[in-house]
UniProtKB/TrEMBL annotation:
Residues 55-162, 382-474 form the Plastocyanin-like domain. Pfam families: Cu-oxidase_2 (PF07731), Cu-oxidase_3 (PF07732). The keyword Oxidoreductase applies. GO terms for molecular function: copper ion binding; oxidoreductase activity. This is Multicopper oxidase type 3. It comes from Hyphomicrobium denitrificans (strain ATCC 51888 / DSM 1869 / NCIMB 11706 / TK 0415). It comes from the Bacteria. GO terms for cellular component: outer membrane-bounded periplasmic space. Keywords: Metal-binding, Oxidoreductase. Transmembrane segments: none annotated.
Length: 475
């Protein structure tokens, strides 16, 4: 199952039911604000009884009081000034915040020991930047990430200003599993058996903290759904049992509306969906078809008078003016994602004026990129980059998965143009995370962005923390 994706940079015509999308040239998004948005985050333990916990209270770690996943909305052109405090309850629990999918300056990227000194418990830090793109992004810590994701420490960042025709309503869905014992306590967030294979799986599924999220929606309406996979491990095949729907953005990047049959998503991937809801009294169900038995993730129950009566003809979003990949002059750089011998121990770290927290690293090494495993490196002595790019120059990343497991490959501070696959038909589209299927080879164009060291890794967190991570240097 799956669907092809079409570039947002080319006009196209698609048929949706009885309606025909009108071919049109892309509309470029422009800044719609120039003021500053203030964001205050307090990372702390907050016990909560989510609906998916069946009445049990667990010690979650969250960014703010009263909400599981904060949803931060801002407008294209606004500056985001963030102040964050680390009140996590464990000594040595350093934090930094990574702004996933944003092409921002390297010193704002939030990678501990690489782009900044992490913030220790009892201390605070700041970020200040202007997001250059519209879209559905998110933020999370980049140290002890398995546990932080596992306890709920993630938030959505939405940059508005991409709609040509406003939707009738909008909903944000955050899909995440929880690793709970039958007694209602957290299980280990990572295991060797899981990390060496597909990743350590959760035991309880959820969307927005519920086993099946239910939304009351306007009838016969076009509603926008921002769907996030913020699980550390799970791969899903997202689709609707009934109703017409179209993908209008991938990882926040607008594209010509693509009829949604199903869409395979790994951790950290996002899609924006335009859904025509059911008539009054009806419902549409969002389903994960990748599981052995289809799992209903959410229901959209229609109420009230109909908003629309015509055929479903989705309007594309505005797009961003990304630099074009000069394919004819692009250097091809191979990246081979492979398994390694297990059990390789890290060498002892030398002392420094910044104490390296043991929770940022692991002594297990199961994975590598170009035969180089991240966990065999000292954070201060990074070792060589996987590649060195020149800012403004075009490259083609030849991504080769030589393993029997899938790997969602994410690059910081850049956006790929997905070009081709050895296993499936792919029309070009932009994404910051590419799901490599087992033994698949994908070619993706990229233009060197802002100078700095940019992380490049699998976003199955078990794989990231056991070797499948490195960095790209842009000069």
């Amino acid at each position: 199952m799956g669907a092809a994706a079409f570039s947002g940079s080319a006009a196209a015509t698609f048929v949706f039911g009885g309606g025909k999308a009108v071919a049109r040239a892309p509309v470029i998004a422009q800044p719609i604000a120039n003021d500053t948005k203030k964001l205050v985050l307090d990372l702390a333990e907050r016990p909560a009884a989510l609906p998916c916990f069946d009445g049990k209270t667990l010690p979650l770690w969250t960014f703010e009081e009263g909400s599981l996943y904060p949803i931060v909305r801002m407008k294209l052109g606004e500056r985001l000034d963030t102040q964050y405090a680390n009140h996590l309850p464990r000594a040595g629990e350093y934090v930094s915040l990574h702004w996933h999918g944003l092409r921002i300056p390297n010193d704002q990227d939030g990678v501990p020991f690489m782009t900044q000194k992490p913030v220790e418990p009892g201390s605070s830090g700041t970020y200040s930047f202007v997001p250059p793109d519209t879209g559905s992004f998110f933020f999370h810590t980049h140290c002890n990430t398995d546990e932080h994701f596992g306890r709920g420490l993630v938030g959505a960042l939405i940059v508005e200003g991409d709609e040509i025709e406003p939707s009738d309503a909008e909903y944000v869905l955050m899909m995440k599993d929880w690793r709970l014992s039958p007694e209602g306590t957290f299980l280990p967030f990572s295991t060797d058996a899981g990390a060496a294979k597909a990743g350590t799986s959760g035991t309880v599924r959820s969307v927005n903290g519920e086993k099946t999220a239910v939304f009351k929606v306007p009838s016969s309406a076009n509603v926008r759904i921002r769907f996030y996979n913020v699980d550390p491990t799970r791969i899903s095949e997202i689709g609707f049992e009934d109703g017409e729907a179209a993908i209008i953005a991938i990882d926040g990047n607008g594209l010509d509306p693509l009829p949604l049959v199903s869409w395979r998503m790994g951790p950290a991937m996002r899609i924006d969906i335009l859904l025509r809801t059911a008539p009054e009294g009806g419902k549409v169900r969002l389903v994960d078809f990748f599981a052995k038995e289809p799992v209903v993730l959410a229901e959209f129950v229609s109420e009230g008078p109909a908003k629309r009566s015509g055929a479903f003809v989705p309007t594309p979003l505005k797009v961003m003016p990304f630099p074009n990949v000069d394919v004819g002059n692009a250097q091809i750089i191979p990246f081979i994602f492979s398994a390694t011998a297990t059990g390789e121990a890290l060498s002892e770290f030398a002392k420094s004026d910044v104490e390296i927290g043991s929770l940022c690293l692991t002594k297990r090494t199961f994975w590598a990129i170009n035969k180089q495993a991240w966990s065999s490196m000292d954070h201060r002595d990074l070792g060589p980059p996987l590649a060195v790019l020149k800012s403004g120059q075009s490259y083609i990343f030849d991504l080769q998965n030589t393993t029997p497991h899938s790997h969602p490959i994410h690059i910081h501070g850049h956006t790929f143009e997905v070009m081709s696959s050895s296993m499936r038909h792919v029309q070009p589209h932009r994404a910051d995370t590419i799901l490599l299927r087992p033994n698949e080879r994908v070619q993706a164009g990229i233009v060197g962005g802002q100078p700095g060291k940019w992380m490049f890794h699998c976003h199955i967190i078990d794989h990231q923390e056991t070797g499948m991570m490195g960095y790209i240097e842009v000069a």
